Amino acid sequence: MPFPIALAIAAAMMAASAKMNNDAQKSVVGARENAMRVELERQRALRERAAAVNDETEARFTRQQQDQSTGQEADRRTQVLQEAVALPTSGIQDIPVAGAPAIVQSQIAASIRDALLYGKKLAGANARLGAYGSNQFNNGLTLNRSAQDLGQVSDFSRRSSDITGMELESANQAGAKQRQMADLFRMGGSLVAMYGGTGAGVGTQAPAPVEDRNPSGVGLRQGGGQGLRL
C-alpha cells in the first residue's frame, strides 16, 4: 500500500477515534450531571418535608393555640365533673329528718347546698388542672411524632446520598462502547500507519535493475544532440 494512502487512512481512523472518545466523555459528563440533578431534587423535596414538619409543630405550640387547647379540654372536663355532682337543689329542704325541728332541717339543706356548690367549684378546678396535664401529654405526643418524622426525613436523606455515590459510579460507565470502538480505531490507525511506512503492500515490488547493454559506449555519435544508437 502506498505510504500516502496509508497515512491518510491512519489519520482518518485516528480522527474517528478522537471523536468517539470525545463523545464518550460527553456521555459520562451528561450521565453524572443527570445523577446529581436527580439527587438535588430528592434533597430539595426532603428539606421541604422537614420544613413542613417544623412549621406544623411550631404552629401547635403558639401561646394562642396552647390556651385554646387547654381551655377546650377544661370546658369538657368541667361539664363532665359537674354533671357528676349535680343534684337538684330544689326541695333539698324537704329531705326528711326524723324528729328534727324545722330549723335543723333547714340547716341540713343549707349544708347540702353548700357542699354541692363547693363540689362544683372543686370540679372546675380539677377540670382545669386535668386539662393542663392532658394538654402537656398531647404536646409530648406531638413532639414525639415530629421527632419521628424528622428522623425519617434525615434517614431518607442519608440513604439518598449513599445511592448517589452508586449512581455516579454507574454514570462513569456511560459511553463504554464508544470508548471500546475508539480504542479499536486507534489501534487500527497505528497498524495501518506502520504497515504503510514499511513500503510493503499488495502488488508492489522493487523495480528490476536496468541492464546496461552498451557498457563501452560504442555507437555514440558526435554532435547534433543525437542520442545513443544501439
How would you characterize this protein structure?
The protein has four helices and no strands. It has 230 residues and is mainly alpha-helical. α1 runs antiparallel to α3, α1 runs antiparallel to α4 and α2 (63-85) packs antiparallel against α3. The longest helix is centred in the middle third of the chain and has 70 residues, at 102-171. The model is unreliable at 200-208 and 218-230 (pLDDT under 50).
> In terms of per-residue confidence, which ranges show pLDDT below 50 for 5 or more consecutive residues?
200-208, 218-230
Q: Terminal Cα separation, in Å?
A: 37 Å
Strand content: under 5%
- Count every helix, treating DSSP H or I runs of 4 or more residues as helices: 4
Summarize the entry for a quick read.
The chain has 4 helices and no strands. The chain is mostly helical. Helix 1 (3-60) packs antiparallel against helix 4.
Strand and helix layout:
Elements: H1 3-60, H2 63-85, H3 102-171, H4 176-197
Helix pairs in contact: 1-3, 1-4, 2-3
List keywords for this structure.
single chain, 230 residues, mainly alpha, rod-shaped, disordered C terminus
